[in-house]
C-alpha cells in the first residue's frame, strides 16, 4: 500500500509541475491584440491558434491527472486509517491527555469524583 501511495504522490507532483510550466508558457488573451498593432512576436512554434489548443488541452489533461491523484491519495489515506475503527485523532488524543495531566484534563469541566479505596472489613 505504501508503494502505491508513493507512486501516486510522485505522479501528482510531476503533473503539478508540468501544469505550472504549461500555464506559464501560455500567453494571455490580450497578447493577440498587441500583436495586431505591430509586434511581431505573436507567432509561435505551433501556429497562431494551434498553440492555444495544444497548450490548453495539455493543461486540462494535467489538471485531470492532478485531481485524480488527489482523490486517490485521499481514498488511500482514509482506508489506511480506517483499519483501527471509527476513531478520530481527537478520540485518540483525549485519553492520553487525561492520563498525562491527571483528573483535570479539560479546563472548565466538572471535577472527576474519585471514590476512596475502602479497606476490606476484618473477619471475626
Automatic annotation (TrEMBL):
Keywords: Cell membrane, Membrane, Protein transport, Translocation, Transmembrane, Transmembrane helix, Transport
Domain of life of the source: Bacteria
Membrane-topology descriptor: Multi-pass membrane protein
One example of a Gene Ontology biological process annotation: protein transport by the Sec complex
Major subcellular location class: membrane
Transmembrane segments: 54-76
Subcellular location: Cell membrane
The keyword RNA-binding belongs to this UniProt entry's keyword annotation: no
Record keyword Cell membrane present: yes
GO molecular function, one term: protein-transporting ATPase activity
GO CC terms: plasma membrane
Similarity comment: Belongs to the SecG family.
Protein's job: Involved in protein export. Participates in an early event of protein translocation.
Name under which the protein is recorded: Protein-export membrane protein SecG
Amino acid at each position: 500500500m505504501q508503494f502505491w501511495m508513493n507512486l501516486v504522490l510522485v505522479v501528482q507532483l510531476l503533473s503539478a509541475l508540468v501544469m505550472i510550466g504549461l500555464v506559464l508558457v501560455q500567453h494571455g488573451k490580450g497578447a493577440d491584440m498587441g500583436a495586431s498593432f505591430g509586434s511581431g512576436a505573436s507567432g509561435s512554434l505551433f501556429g497562431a491558434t494551434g498553440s492555444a489548443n495544444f497548450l490548453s488541452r495539455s493543461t486540462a489533461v494535467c489538471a485531470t491527472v492532478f485531481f485524480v491523484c488527489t482523490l486517490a491519495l485521499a481514498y488511500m489515506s482514509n482506508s489506511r486509517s480506517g483499519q483501527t475503527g471509527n476513531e478520530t485523532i481527537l478520540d485518540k488524543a483525549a485519553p492520553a491527555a487525561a492520563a498525562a495531566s491527571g483528573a483535570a484534563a479539560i479546563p472548565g469541566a466538572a471535577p472527576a469524583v474519585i471514590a476512596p479505596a475502602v479497606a476490606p472489613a476484618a473477619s471475626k
